[in-house]
Amino acid sequence: MRLIRAERRTFTGAAGILDDDDHRADVAAYFADMTRPFGAELDTELSGHSYGEMAKALVAAVVPAAEPVDLLVLAFSIHDMWPGRATATYLSHLCPGTPLSFAVCDQGSAAPFTGLRVIRDYGARRALLIVVEQASLPYDSTTAPPLEHRGVAMLYSGHPGTRVTDLRQYPDVAPEAVAGLASLGVAELSAGHPGARVVLSDSLAAVWPGPPDHTRAPVGQPTTGVWWHLAEALAGSGGPVVIGDYDRELRYLCFAVVEVRDQ
């Protein structure tokens, strides 16, 4: 797998579907039905965003019409504000090549790493990984939503470019075991790559900060944080980048190594 192009964006406002009074009423009714058994109070503001709208813009920026995609993977953690749409199927319709599409969710911040594994194991000629998160939940939750609506799209191909050299996922890792496993994992993944940059999510850095030269993703973007930095690295100087993330609630520890070549 070679990462040849990436785009990252912050989105403002709310989902366009919420501008229509009938659609807004339908969405409110859906969330009211879903939250009622739990005694949660519904916020009628409904200010969240739609992953379909966010990803549509990212697809247009990353995939030229002359470079059709064979596989599309959408990775997210919390739901968006258009619950009635099969977003991955919708994006397949929009993406050049009408690719086979998957949505990966219910894995917290491990979802994008699983998306990479799907791409690697499927063996697609050209594949698109889209990582998105929106910043509003219309009900009370014990988990704080992200600070901003953000999305990152990464196009992988067999063409010369940037190569994903390794990918590791460790399930059921207790917080007290993270430091030892992360230290060993980063050392092994960085071996043979002098000067490798290491980017840690804020949740991983909270239990294992690592050496001071490690980059720490900003707090508040649990799903897109490390991928946001990877997109930035692709636009800059070359060299290997090790990205690591830890989901404390679901206890997934994940790492990937990407060799970024000078563009």
Work out the strand percent: 25-35%
Could you say how many structural domains there are in total?
2
| CATH fold assignment of the largest domain | Peroxisomal Thiolase, Chain A, domain 1
CATH superfamily of the largest domain: Thiolase/Chalcone synthase
> Total strand count, please?
10
Give the ordered list of helices and strands: EHHEHEHEEEHEHEHEE
Largest sheet strand order: 3-2-4-5-1-6-10-9-7-8
| Residue share in helix | 25-40%
User: Biggest sheet: strands, sense, closure?
Assistant: 10 strands, mixed
Question: What is the molecular shape?
Answer: globular
From the N-terminal CA to the C-terminal CA, the straight-line distance is 17 Å
Number of helices: 7
CATH class of the largest domain, anyone? Alpha Beta
The radius of gyration over CA amounts to 18 Å
Mean pLDDT: 90
Q: Which residue ranges are poorly predicted, with pLDDT under 50 across at least 5 consecutive positions?
A: none
Q: What is the CATH architecture assignment of the largest domain?
A: 3-Layer(aba) Sandwich
Secondary structure category: alpha/beta
